[in-house]
What we know:
The chain is α/β, with parallel strands linked by helices. It has helices at residues 12-32, 56-66, 81-88, 107-116, 127-143, 159-166, 181-191, 196-206, 214-217, 220-234, 253-261, 323-341; strands spanning 2-8, 35-43, 46-49, 75-77, 92-95, 120-123, 147-148, 172-178, 243-245, 264-274, 279-289, 302-308, 312-318. Helix 7 (181-191) crosses helix 8. NADP nicotinamide-adenine-dinucleotide phosphate is lined by residues 8-14, 42-45, 68, 96-99, 106, 124-126, 151-152, 155, 207-208, 210-211, 321-323, 326.
Amino acid sequence: LNIRLALTGFGSVGKGFAELLQQFGEQYEREYGARLVLTGVADRGGAVVNPEGLDPTVLLEAKQRYLTVSGAHLGEPGLEGREFLQKTQANVLLEAASTNFEDAEPGWGYAREALGLGMDVVLASKGSLVLHYQELMEMARKQDARVLFSGAVGAPLPILELADRALIGAGLQGFEAILNGTSNQVLEAMSEGSTYEEGVTIAQEIGVAETDPTLDVDGWDAAAKAVILANALFGVHVGLQDVAREGIREVTASELKEAARDGSRIKLIVRMSKTAGGVQASVGPEKRSQLDVLGRLRGIELGIVFKTKLLGDVTSTIQDAGGVPTALTVVRDVFNLARDRGWVSQL
Ligand SMILES: NC(=O)c1ccc[n+]([C@@H]2O[C@H](COP(=O)([O-])OP(=O)(O)OC[C@H]3O[C@@H](n4cnc5c(N)ncnc54)[C@H](OP(=O)(O)O)[C@@H]3O)[C@@H](O)[C@H]2O)c1
């Protein structure tokens, strides 16, 4: 079985996905019973489409040489939107383009067009989920399509998978989490004597920083994840304005040093708790003991502590983040989709 995929965005995550196919495509096919075939890829320069399948190596080379995938053989500068999606004949849209919280484009437009064309959708980008969660899910329901987005909420932490499957019946009451690697990295670099800018540069090199890193350090990215999780975990329809948000710009080197003296670190923490009328959600810097599950996370490590009635704290942490690990969440969403749809029997 071939699963045909249209990919929008060919940056850290998109290229990471192509690298995974290059290295592990055949192994996935053997283990899970389906071949992942890229039939179209788009970036800002245009697109390249071949319904028979594109070679990931050729895509990566073209991107490096021409700075756009449309430089590859069969590439079409300027090809985008519905016309691009139609030409790909894909089963699933993988949306991994830059995002924003003003109009959520290009992800919102691509997600709507793909659903309209009968495709399922896997989102790594957050904008459309933050601004249009209900509308998106309603559209998917009408089309009998699926929208998966484990890459959009603290990738590659298995947050949704854990909550949806492993915490059934446990009485989820809330969580506290570190969901933004860039802020974590900047705070750590500053506590070790580097500047704020040096911290951002490290995060950019690893590929965890947003295209515009102010979204990370001002807490917007973490707040966006909180909004999506309020919707996904608690069915509560909140927006960015409902999350109390403070970034890390005000945290000083001397505060970080002082925290270190008593065995603590300052971390950007997302908190959410269920209330009678909905949820209470916040993002802000907190002093945490280095012995604490979240306080001990270094660099770009991410973690979540679910608060449950019957199991107490249920924790997941992860050491690696960035383009390839996020691309892996896209791979797992596609195979989970394939299993739920009955496309594969080996899973
Ligand atoms: N990196 C991570 O660790 C991570 C983790 C979770 C989620 N995400 C999300 O995943 C998405 C991609 O992240 P990234 O790190 O790969 O970003 P990135 O390296 O900045 O790449 C963004 C890509 O989007 C493309 N793009 C921008 N506008 C477009 C448009 N109108 N049409 C088609 N393509 C467009 C860019 O094209 P050009 O190459 O032509 O500039 C680029 O290829 C973002 O929404 C991000 O929030 C990232």
